[in-house]
Write the structure tokens for this entry.
Amino acid sequence: MPYFDAASAAPLHPVGRQALLAALDEGWADPARLHREGRRARLLLDAAREAAAEAVGCRPDELVFTPSGTHAVHSGVSGALAGRRRVGGRLVVSAVEHSSVLHAGQAHAAAGGTVTEVPVGRTGAVDPEAFAAELRGPDGGAGSGAGSGAGSGAAGSDVALACLQSANHEVGTEQPVAEVAEACRAAGVPLLVDAAQSLGWGPVPEGWSLLAASAHKWGGPAGVGLLAVRKGVRFAPQGPSDERESGRAPGFENLPAIVAAAASLRAVRAEAVAEGARLRALVDRIRARVPELVPDVEVVGDPVRRLPHLVTFSCLYVDGETLLSELDREGFSVSSGSSCTSSTLTPSHVLRAMGVLSEGNVRVSLPAGTTEADVDRFLAVLPGVVTGVRDRLGAGAPAPGGGEDLVVDALGKRCPLPVIELAKVIGTVRVGGTVTVLADDEAARLDIPAWCEMRAQEYVGATPSPRGGHAYVVRRLS
Amino acid sequence: MPYFDAASAAPLHPVGRQALLAALDEGWADPARLHREGRRARLLLDAAREAAAEAVGCRPDELVFTPSGTHAVHSGVSGALAGRRRVGGRLVVSAVEHSSVLHAGQAHAAAGGTVTEVPVGRTGAVDPEAFAAELRGPDGGAGSGAGSGAGSGAAGSDVALACLQSANHEVGTEQPVAEVAEACRAAGVPLLVDAAQSLGWGPVPEGWSLLAASAHKWGGPAGVGLLAVRKGVRFAPQGPSDERESGRAPGFENLPAIVAAAASLRAVRAEAVAEGARLRALVDRIRARVPELVPDVEVVGDPVRRLPHLVTFSCLYVDGETLLSELDREGFSVSSGSSCTSSTLTPSHVLRAMGVLSEGNVRVSLPAGTTEADVDRFLAVLPGVVTGVRDRLGAGAPAPGGGEDLVVDALGKRCPLPVIELAKVIGTVRVGGTVTVLADDEAARLDIPAWCEMRAQEYVGATPSPRGGHAYVVRRLS
């Protein structure tokens, strides 16, 4: 039964499992104790730290283990912001960061700080120039930066910290980390890189000041994240602390899991080049074949500068939750950023920031070892599943005609129904006429313009509707 | 090789290990996902929560899993304080709480709050009356409390939260939780009970509002704590959060470890009555035999109202670190609250609050399965080890005489040397005469008065010494 949701979590790597079992026997004691069990635990902890630091590309004393990637991000952001409080209160992040970064930003804003989101293009990547512009101070001047590195508070910028993921978790697009790191260096602003999705595939480009990652994303166990803080970066851990992990991650060390995490990282890195190339070819096949096999599909994310194992596409006239459960019945476990699968009824902030279709969204992320046959079977099954969902929703049968402008009332209807209604009637108005869709579903904001782009119709705009929601106006061009 | 440091960490219970292995296979996926692996993980998480809630004595929706007991305490304290910010900013804790509670209190104080420490008696227990007195408002009036429970802000008290451990982690003394809970109820103040040391032995007495615990203390794995918050208790989680664990514990759930923690708790509880009685008898034997076998020893903590498996004693004229390493060479792993084993050179805050001797301190905490033979061998080895350390330090050979008052300069000398110097010369002054010890070691403050009490000499007092440290005056009585 193929599991295609490796970007959420992957099973523990066999090497990690073996290390975990050994460490359950040898590493259960408190590494802060002086007795032999404690000393043995300390040795294991030190060895794990050295292995992880080597994979990250930092000194062992720059790296601490945290209870999760989320904790690493939260501690990294709050500690770096507090360490540079005197420089300013502004946090600059890309608009497509993982929710843990955005939540840390919300907490910062709630405490009186400012958060600036750098927009992304249609592939999901930030523009390094645009990022650099946000690092300049309120007076528009860049920091002095000259050889100062991230530790110094460069004059002119009120930015305390910048955050950029190494690669996006929903669409796989790699971010221009090296370029942004250079801009940060020039502005004297430390850069935190969330490397959760990429660390198993290779080290992050040089230039970061802080780095966060999560073991269960690279085939390590749950319960382990890591936070590296370069020497010289001003860092003031927030909240209660103790003497463990250099005062940066309180609580008894989860040592067996830490040992397993380090062993897994080393193991996946040893396989990363070959396995990455293999999965990259499988993803290329999905990217090429899905639009051929399924009409009205948008494959999103950068086709080249991307994670090897991850691809995301969206299907018009389909709701994500039904699509997921139908694929699940066929034995395929995938994920979705569609609004219909979320309790908040809001489409994924990543797809929204990219301005791409969110309805019928599917994220496929292949775990190591995925076979060609698994992928082929997925490609064989997908078209029928999508057609089935569309048929049940009554999509795909536009009425003929050439009549007057129309108003479609889709208030109270959830994604993908507003778009389905639009698609049904567009052919009934004359070319040059308009369809106005009244909709209060959050996804319509994103999906109606995306539909227009995909179907070569003109998106005129939206105005608030007196009965709630918005009136979306679409002009028929063909 | 007997390991006598179960209160620090215990090896994973065999049932927990089995559960962990099963959950590595079945529970590695994200329980928030809709696919079959996610649903399977969700089922395991729900079952673990139900089992843990039953052992704690709460509803499953009142309990969340955290990455450690320390995280449970930190989140519980900060969330409860924030939830009652309008009532007041005072936190009341016993003076012998675990460092995680004290660190949370320090963070509260740093943010402008107030922390009141309730002193303990010589056994380490708080007096419920004294605790209740601290819950009264600044006007001295008790809260209305009438049937209001902990959720309401009773008029008159500015106390936002009270914390009391179920039993002390260093000396084993049980706290009067039921009585203090009743006082809290009457004052309308929520009570957080840190049950880290006792939860494996049985449920906490009724009346708590919040409860924190740590799995690796009950034979569960590292990486899991639990926090229970009774319905109706005002609680506002602090820091960035996400949708996991009711918004109270951010980050990907450490599911295999959570499953193992719940399974271990159930397993140790099933064995608790029988194993507790057996270990209680072994500890009774240590409590009785150590003072018979080793001269100048103080066994501390309540002899009856105590954890079944834990006993602490202190040996005059011995430094804790040497004693620990000598016992380690003999194959016994124990712990110590002596200043000499701590990087801060400060004796354990618990021993200090109790006013008992800290030098040569040894904590013995027996894991389940400890045999009578292990304990007997410990009792056979201990006297020789203590004598060896004392001989090397030149203790135990007081000079004879009946001379004039003396001043001993022990400035710059670390524990236990100031006390050894004192003991050496006390016999040389006439009965009624004094010895003044100049010492700047932090432990002397505690250990010189404790020595006087143990040796029936009079502790006159201490005054700051012009050359740093203090001048401790002792009068020879016999």
In short: Chain A touches chain B through 63 residues (CB under 8 Å). Chain A has twelve helices and 14 strands.
